[in-house]
Protein backbone atom coordinates (compact mmCIF):
# COMPACT_ATOMS: atom_id res chain seq x y z
CA UNK A 1 0.00 0.00 0.00
CA UNK A 2 1.37 3.41 -1.02
CA UNK A 3 0.39 5.08 2.26
CA UNK A 4 2.34 2.54 4.30
CA UNK A 5 5.45 3.22 2.21
CA UNK A 6 5.19 6.96 2.79
CA UNK A 7 4.93 6.56 6.54
CA UNK A 8 7.61 3.85 6.66
CA UNK A 9 9.99 6.21 4.84
CA UNK A 10 9.18 8.97 7.34
CA UNK A 11 9.96 6.64 10.25
CA UNK A 12 13.28 5.67 8.63
CA UNK A 13 14.20 9.34 8.25
CA UNK A 14 13.21 10.06 11.86
CA UNK A 15 15.36 7.20 13.12
CA UNK A 16 18.32 8.33 11.00
CA UNK A 17 18.10 11.88 12.36
CA UNK A 18 17.76 10.59 15.92
CA UNK A 19 20.75 8.24 15.58
CA UNK A 20 22.89 10.96 13.96
CA UNK A 21 22.08 13.28 16.88
CA UNK A 22 22.78 10.60 19.48
CA UNK A 23 19.16 10.78 20.65
CA UNK A 24 17.57 8.18 22.87
CA UNK A 25 14.23 8.61 21.15
CA UNK A 26 12.07 10.80 18.96
CA UNK A 27 9.85 12.71 21.38
CA UNK A 28 7.72 14.40 18.74
CA UNK A 29 7.33 15.19 15.09
CA UNK A 30 5.33 17.75 13.14
CA UNK A 31 4.15 16.95 9.63
CA UNK A 32 2.19 18.84 7.00
CA UNK A 33 -0.20 16.87 4.83
CA UNK A 34 -0.80 18.32 1.39
CA UNK A 35 -4.32 19.01 0.13
CA UNK A 36 -4.07 16.31 -2.54
CA UNK A 37 -2.30 13.68 -0.46
CA UNK A 38 -4.02 10.39 0.19
CA UNK A 39 -4.21 10.94 3.94
CA UNK A 40 -6.77 12.26 6.35
CA UNK A 41 -5.08 13.19 9.65
CA UNK A 42 -6.68 10.24 11.50
CA UNK A 43 -5.58 7.83 8.76
CA UNK A 44 -2.01 9.18 8.88
CA UNK A 45 -1.93 8.87 12.68
CA UNK A 46 -3.02 5.21 12.49
CA UNK A 47 -0.27 4.40 9.97
CA UNK A 48 2.30 6.35 11.99
CA UNK A 49 1.50 4.57 15.25
CA UNK A 50 1.67 1.18 13.55
CA UNK A 51 4.96 1.84 11.70
CA UNK A 52 6.61 3.51 14.72
CA UNK A 53 6.04 0.48 16.94
CA UNK A 54 9.41 -0.88 18.09
CA UNK A 55 11.40 2.09 16.71
CA UNK A 56 12.96 5.23 18.22
CA UNK A 57 9.77 7.02 17.15
CA UNK A 58 7.40 4.83 19.16
CA UNK A 59 5.25 7.01 21.40
CA UNK A 60 6.33 10.24 19.69
CA UNK A 61 3.86 13.10 19.90
CA UNK A 62 2.53 13.59 16.38
CA UNK A 63 1.45 17.07 15.34
CA UNK A 64 -0.39 17.16 12.02
CA UNK A 65 -1.09 20.27 9.99
CA UNK A 66 -3.19 19.98 6.86
CA UNK A 67 -3.05 22.22 3.83
CA UNK A 68 -6.08 23.16 1.74
CA UNK A 69 -4.01 24.70 -1.08
CA UNK A 70 -4.41 22.40 -4.09
CA UNK A 71 -2.07 24.65 -6.13
CA UNK A 72 0.84 24.18 -3.72
CA UNK A 73 3.70 22.32 -5.47
CA UNK A 74 3.73 19.95 -2.46
CA UNK A 75 -0.04 19.36 -2.47
CA UNK A 76 0.39 15.61 -2.98
CA UNK A 77 3.09 15.22 -0.35
CA UNK A 78 3.55 14.65 3.35
CA UNK A 79 6.32 16.91 4.63
CA UNK A 80 8.26 16.64 7.88
CA UNK A 81 8.23 20.10 9.44
CA UNK A 82 10.13 19.52 12.70
CA UNK A 83 11.46 16.82 15.01
CA UNK A 84 11.76 16.86 18.80
CA UNK A 85 14.52 14.57 20.06
CA UNK A 86 15.29 13.27 23.52
CA UNK A 87 19.07 13.65 23.66
CA UNK A 88 21.05 12.57 26.74
CA UNK A 89 22.74 15.43 28.53
CA UNK A 90 26.27 15.24 29.93
CA UNK A 91 24.98 13.19 32.88
CA UNK A 92 23.44 10.59 30.57
CA UNK A 93 19.91 11.79 31.29
CA UNK A 94 17.45 12.68 28.54
CA UNK A 95 16.36 16.22 27.78
Low-confidence stretches: none
Mean pLDDT: 93
The proportion of residues in beta strands is 25-35%
Shape: elongated
Q: How much is the radius of gyration in Å?
A: 14 Å
Element order: H for helix, E for strand: HEHEE
Oligomeric status of the shown chains?
A: single chain
Spatial gap, N to C terminus: 36 Å
Q: With helices defined by DSSP (H or I, 4 residues minimum), what is the helix count?
A: 2
Count of discrete structural domains? 1
> By helix and strand content, what is the structural category?
alpha+beta
Which CATH top level class fits? Alpha Beta
Instruction: Estimate the helix proportion, in percent.
Output: 25-40%
Which fold does the CATH topology refer to?
hypothetical protein PF0899 fold
The largest β sheet comes out as: 3 strands, mixed
Question: Could you explain the architecture of this structure?
Answer:
- This protein has 95 residues and is α+β, with helices and mostly antiparallel strands.
- 34% of the residues lie in helices and 25% in strands.
- It contains 2 helices and 3 strands; from the N terminus they run H-E-H-E-E.
- The protein has helices at 2-21, 41-52; strands at residues 25-33, 61-66, 78-86.
- It has a 3-stranded mixed β-sheet.
- Helix 1 packs across helix 2.
- The longest helix is centred in the first third of the chain and has 20 residues, at 2-21.
- It starts with a helix and ends in a 9-residue tail after the last strand.
Amino acid sequence: MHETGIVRDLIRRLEAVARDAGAKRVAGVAVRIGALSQFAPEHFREHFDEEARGTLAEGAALRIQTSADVTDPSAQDVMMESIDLEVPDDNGEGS
